[in-house]
Design a protein that fits this description.
By secondary structure, the protein is an alpha/beta fold. Helix content is about 50%, strand content about 20%. The protein is built from five helices and seven strands. The strands form two sheets. A five-stranded mixed β-sheet has the order 4-3-5-6-7, covered by helices on one side.
């Protein structure tokens, strides 16, 4: 069982409860992809903090009501989420820009990108913004993405990969 709250999960729970106060814990669990016990734990915590009230709607049916404190808490969680997302965005852009400087100093104007998801999207946009062409050719230098780590692999005169590490892993 979880011992510490997950702010993102609590933010989503509060959003879903606000949208549908009659939602069941089983439905919440299915939508979040977690166990009903996990949803129950979070809801009990939100109730104990005064962010959610529980009322009996029918004999076996509950209704969840977000309190004004709960609305303010959800707003804080949302602002924190946006702030963390922007910090991650700026960090990845800076690491990719550093790799692009090294790429240009080595005389290249194109690169291939290994990675997927939001980090790879940020990398692609930064490359295009900096005038770097993205290719699929295995001869092109490689920007390898792993979590928040950005590695540039240049082809040197001995046909070996020279990794250049930008930033520390999170």
């Amino acid at each position: 069982m979880e011992t510490s709250p997950d702010p993102n999960r609590e933010m989503v729970l509060l959003e879903k409860i606000e949208y549908d106060p009659d939602i069941t814990q089983a439905s919440l669990a299915a939508q979040l992809g977690v166990a009903v016990g996990t949803v129950n734990w979070h809801l009990k915590r939100l109730v104990s903090k005064g962010y959610v009230k529980v009322k009996r709607a029918q004999r076996r049916k509950l209704r969840y009501i977000i309190t004004p404190e709960g609305i303010a808490f959800r707003a804080r969680l949302t602002v924190n989420y946006i702030d963390q997302s922007m910090q991650m965005y700026r960090l990845v852009r800076e690491r990719v820009r550093e790799a692009i400087v090294d790429l240009k100093l080595a005389g290249y104007d194109s690169v291939r990108i290994q990675g997927d998801g939001d980090i790879a999207d940020i990398c692609r946009l930064t490359c295009l913004e900096q005038g770097i062409t993205i290719k699929e050719s295995p001869e092109a230098p490689l920007i390898e993405l792993h979590n928040l780590q950005v590695n540039l692999h240049l082809d040197d005169s001995q046909d070996e990969q020279l990794p250049i590490r930008h930033g520390l892993e999170k």
